[in-house]
Amino acid sequence: MTLETTNTQSTPQTSASYRVFISAALRQPVVVGAMAPSSAALAERMTSVVASSGEPVVVELGPGTGSVSAVIQRRLPAGARHIAIEVDEEMAEHLRRVQPGVEVLHGDAEHLDRLLAGCGVDAADAVVSALPWSLFRPETQARIVGQIGGVLAPGGAFTTIAYLHARALAGGRRFHRLLRDRFDEVIVSEVVWRNLPPARVYACRRPVARD
Ligand SMILES: C[S@@+](CC[C@H](N)C(=O)[O-])C[C@H]1O[C@@H](n2cnc3c(N)ncnc32)[C@H](O)[C@@H]1O
Description:
The protein is built from eight helices and nine strands. By secondary structure, the chain is an alpha/beta fold. This is Methyltransferase.
């Protein structure tokens, strides 16, 4: 059945996708970090850095059941690569079934460079992520952001989201400082209210070289 269910206004997710998402969120609330997939409005914002021409390599971190993946797939030209790294095995398997154009890797974003090397990729034109950053330990935040900076191609961009309420959390404030510290350009969007919960999109470019 392809009944469409929504995050009030979302990228259409089938009822099966929705069930897989909710089941993962109940099983591992701190890993999933949200009770609903991203909305279409948020997904459009996050993916605006994805090139629709050429042969871009796009890496998606924490694709879940694919609400953002679907928008990336719609933008991508033939010849592009779309690699998605998902830590939850059930969601990874589900995504393989519903988005056959995506190369889904079951793994942890903490091993980003190794996972990409395993599929012959050493640079990404865009990294798109909805990882639950504010719930990560400081060292995990820093390790993943460092690896993203390390794999971004010259001129590449990294986009991610921060839920509005997360800015009040220590982990959310730390993540904001980390991005400012690690990227030369960090553009923060206005609040995307059409998402549960409302969120801002961060677009980061030009990772700062570190010793
Ligand atoms: C807030 S959900 C977002 C899901 C989807 N991108 C969306 O926007 O609807 C966060 C996703 O990140 C995944 N995740 C959490 N930690 C991860 C990690 N270390 N590596 C890869 N995926 C991770 C979760 O399993 C979940 O699918």
